[in-house]
Every structure is written in structure tokens, then in C-alpha cells.
């Protein structure tokens, strides 16, 4: 177990995975009109489980867990040009993930503030 894991627990890895998922969802949104583009997403629960059980527990392990848990989205209504991005779905998932990212970040900020106060003897 690394020092980071002891201080932040699972939240550090969750924040890194949520950040990667935000980038992926933003890419899907940006390519909503690109013919043949296939929407991708990360199975967050599976990626987090993998990231927390890997031996090294480094940032590279979190990235590998995200890659291993990535898949293509199956559209509800396929488009004629082969694009599988459904803009409303992507926007909803992006907003939901952004809220969860901010929540995790707030938790970590609180944890850091607590540690800082403890070090100062407050």
C-alpha cells in the first residue's frame, strides 16, 4: 500500500478514472457528426475495481484499468452513416460524471485540509 492510498483511499484512483471518462465522453460529443465514429465509454465500476486490486497501484495502473474497461456503446437508434454517438445520452453521461468528479474532488480537498490542519497543530 502506498502513502497516497493510505491518505486518500480509493478516492484518488476514482478521481483519475472520472477524469479519463470525462475526456472520453467529451470526445464522443465532439465527434457526434463524424461519419463512422463509434462512441466509447469506460465501465467505471469495473475499472475502479481493477485499479484498486492491481499490485503496483500507480497512475499507469489506473490508466491500464481504464483501457481494460473501455468498450463501445450500442446505440438505441443507429444512424445511417455508422456513427453511434447519441448526443443526448453522451451529454447526460458527461454531466453525471462531472458532478461525481466534483464530489470526489471536494472530498479530497476536505481530506487535504484536515491533514494540513493536523500538521499545523490546529
From TrEMBL:
Entry keywords, A to Z: Bacterial flagellum, Cell projection, Cilium, Flagellum
Domain of life: Bacteria
GO cellular component: bacterial-type flagellum basal body, rod
GO biological process, one term: bacterial-type flagellum-dependent swarming motility
Cellular compartment(s): Bacterial flagellum basal body
PANTHER family: FLAGELLAR BASAL BODY ROD PROTEIN FLGB, FLAGELLAR PROTEIN
Similarity remark: Belongs to the flagella basal body rod proteins family.
Subunit structure: The basal body constitutes a major portion of the flagellar organelle and consists of a number of rings mounted on a central rod. In Gram-negative bacteria, at least four rings, L, P, S and M are present, whereas Gram-positive bacteria lack the L and P rings. The rod consists of about 26 subunits of FlgG in the distal portion, and FlgB, FlgC and FlgF build up the proximal portion of the rod with about 6 subunits each.
Stated role: Structural component of flagellum, the bacterial motility apparatus. Part of the rod structure of flagellar basal body.
Record-linked NCBIfam families: FlgB
Protein name, as recorded: Flagellar basal body rod protein FlgB
Organismal lineage: Bacteria, Pseudomonadati, Pseudomonadota, Alphaproteobacteria, Sphingomonadales
Amino acid at each position: 500500500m502506498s502513502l497516497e492510498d493510505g491518505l486518500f483511499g480509493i478516492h484518488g484512483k476514482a478521481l483519475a478514472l472520472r477524469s479519463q471518462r470525462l475526456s472520453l465522453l467529451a470526445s464522443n460529443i465532439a465527434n457526434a457528426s463524424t461519419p463512422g465514429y463509434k462512441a466509447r465509454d469506460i465501465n467505471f465500476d469495473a475499472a475502479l475495481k481493477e485499479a484498486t486490486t492491481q499490485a503496483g497501484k500507480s497512475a499507469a495502473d489506473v490508466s491500464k484499468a481504464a483501457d481494460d474497461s473501455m468498450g463501445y456503446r450500442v446505440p438505441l437508434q443507429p444512424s445511417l452513416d455508422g456513427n453511434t454517438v447519441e448526443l443526448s445520452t453522451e451529454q447526460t453521461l458527461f454531466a453525471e460524471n462531472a458532478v461525481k468528479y466534483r464530489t470526489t474532488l471536494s472530498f479530497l480537498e476536505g481530506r487535504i485540509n484536515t491533514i494540513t490542519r493536523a500538521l499545523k497543530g490546529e
